[in-house]
Amino acid sequence: MRNKRNRRNKTVSLLFVLTLMISLLAACGSNQKAPENNGQEPAGDAAANSQKEEPAKEEPKEKVKLKFFTGKVETIELMDQLIKKFNEENPGIEVVQEYQKDASSVIKVKFAAGDVPDITTVVEQDYIDQGKYLDLSNEPFWSRVLPSIKELSTDVKTGKQYRVATNVTMAGIFYNKQIFEELGLKEALTWEAFKANLQTIKDKKPDVVPMFLAGRDSWTLGHLIEFMPHGIIKQKLGVNGSRVAFINNESDKLAFDAEGGVIDTFAKRLLELKEAGLINADALTATYDNQKEAFSTGKAAIISQGMWVMGDLLKIDPDIASNVGFSPYPAIMDGTQPVVLSADDSRYAITADSKYPEEAKKFLEFLIQPENLQAYSEFLKSPPAFTDVTANWGPLNEQATQALKTGVNIPFTDTPSGFSGDDAGKMVQELLAGKYTSIEFAKAYREAWDKAWNATR
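Given the sequence above, the corresponding structure tokens read:
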């Protein structure tokens, strides 16, 4: 009995020990780290505590800041709208517009300082010669451009295209139709007839300025030289011949300082108008805005301007559309013809040193999209230079067509980069202020032109 009891007690003890060991092992197992799940998602608390590796994030691309430099005061607001549209459609590019009144001079400083714009409306022959602009000859848009505008956009030295113009523009004499009809006046094609018209206006309508000059904005006076005396050179030598003469400074053909020549004669004509009281007394201080206001309100009978002015005239007085007459500049010398500017307008070039030439091309392509160019043409009241764009560009359509038939069609002048239209206009300011006689003005003009031309050689 005793032995059986002892065996029973040993068995119970053994079972107790085994049970205790199993419990301890289970407890130890529960404190160990959970095994790897071989790529499967952990469940429960293990899923919450698991740490997964996140994929590497790509650094955001830096936005391209494209600098657009312009000297076209008439289009600042519209370009702001188009730029906003482009920036919204192209979130990786931000176009920023910079306008400068004397853009031709300012861009010279920018090139010298390395502050180079990416795309600009300022295109000078000297900078073409220096390789400052990108060659656009192989761009696909040329098949859409009017042949005459492509010709004017072609560099006469290399035969390549470094700029493209979006529009055709014209400049000439704007006159008040109502005043002309009341006084029985007709468009004047000779200087004698032109001056006689101004004298009649002065005599019969003393409260009206016969011809209003915006002399404070010197570019408007620079245009008088570009269209009137330069116009004689252009009609004598032809479009390409005169471009070559201006670009190469062929002084024997230009004859700027000749007594009785084109510049001397122009200065005499302008001084005649001043002495006879046929221009506004404040011609040296009146602004472009003053000129537009005076013409729109009937306080001035005649102004010298281009189609670019029509949009602003219509803003001042929408009813003026039917009252604006347009004719060529009268011939200021015997034996010559009246002239009318018919040229490429709104020129664009991409700089060769641009860090973002492809983005600049993309912006240019945006500007010449038919719907954008239509809006631009209708705003500027200037015909598009692209054949696939139809625009209701303004009220001067019929008169402009007639003027092209009446006067010799001339382009803009290819001036040296250091002698812009503003610079020429400042000299005209000095002429009106009494600094020069006509021949002194002609000699000073030749000297300033030569100095600027030689500075780039």
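Confidence is low (pLDDT under 50) at residues 1-50. Try to locate this feature in the token string yourself.
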